[in-house]
Amino acid sequence: MSSLRPTSKTTGLHVLLIDDEPRSATISALKDCRLSHLGKAAFFRLADQLEARYHKAKAHVDKLQQSILAKAFRGELTADWRAANPHLITGENSAQALLAKIKAERDKPKKTSKQQAMFNE
Known about the structure:
The protein is mainly α and 121 residues long. It has helices at 20-35, 40-74, 79-84, 95-107, 113-120; strands spanning 4-6, 16-18.
């Protein structure tokens, strides 16, 4: 995920830079604007373009996260691993066996502080 951070002021404007590649493109575009003498209007157009690119990229990232979660819940991300390692998910390692172990641990009577003190002596 890209991190936005403010840089020093450039002709009275704060410019937000994003990682390395976009940073180079931004600096290049800023130099072009300064050299072409278009002034503040060029900077504002550039800022609008950068904001639009950011929102588009963020929308893609949000969709990607949802897609990954959906595939994870359907088991699509681990299908190859499960096929290659059936011994790790069957028998005593199956979900049912592990749940039974957890329930057995929860159902054990808890030791009182007196019992723990006697056990530690």
